[in-house]
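#struct-pred
JK: can someone run the complex with adenosine-5'-triphosphate? inputs below
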Amino acid sequence: MTRPLRVGIFGGTFNPIHRGHLAIAEEVRKAIGLDRVLLIPAGRPPHKTGRKIPPAKHRLEMVRLSVRGHPDLEVSDLEVRRRGKSYTIETVKALERNYPKGTEFFLILGLDAFMEFSTWRSPDELKARCHLVVVSRPVFLFADLIRLDFLSKTDPKPLRELDQGRRVRHEFPLTPDTRLILIRVKAHDVSATQIRDHLSGGKRLKNLLPPLVESYIIKNHLYEGTTHSS
Ligand code: ATP
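RT: done, structure tokens with the ligand placed:
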């Protein structure tokens, strides 16, 4: 019997996609043995409203350019094609319809994003439909997860050990069918905000972007002298 497909779902505004995003996708794929990771740029990110974000077609194209040479990373335009705000629960349901029955989905997110998870649409349904994979991010602490209502009774010791680098992975059940997997990844001290600031201020990027993405930004005059925050 063939084992079910294991698919990572890595969503983001990707404004722009940077080396940190790609490194995380690859590191998680290897760490938990995923068949592929889907990078899914948000069409209209629900948490980043009221701010100017470059059109989705540019962000999507940058993600497409960035995965060249990464055969296990794929790009999905699902959220860009969908009207309205890009809610992850709708994306997961659409993927369930498109993949063979029994496919296991792993939603990948940074620790900063996970701290906001309870404010997402239908968090309980998401927890029941996919495993959650939360990766470390500089400045954020796994130990702070006990501030989240649904993790308030979690043993803090393994969380502290993750923060201290004495442990690289810790997991426990979320529901009878799904798990929360915490992974300490190599530190990637980069954010899209920092990149936009560098670009608008004419500063050097110091290898923070895949080269094809950097060329695309220059060619299309993205982020020039603006603060395209998100
Ligand atoms: P911004 O600075 O505009 O908020 P960002 O760099 O956080 O952007 P997003 O597109 O918002 O990028 O992030 C998509 C996902 O990637 C989120 O789950 C976020 O937590 C995660 N992520 C982004 N950069 C890192 C990083 N350096 N380390 C760990 N996780 C990251």
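RT: quick notes.
The two ends are 45 Å apart (CA to CA).
Residues 12-15, 20-21, 24, 109-110, 112-113, 135, 137, 188, 190-193, 230 surround adenosine-5'-triphosphate (CB under 6 Å).
JK: thanks, will look after standup
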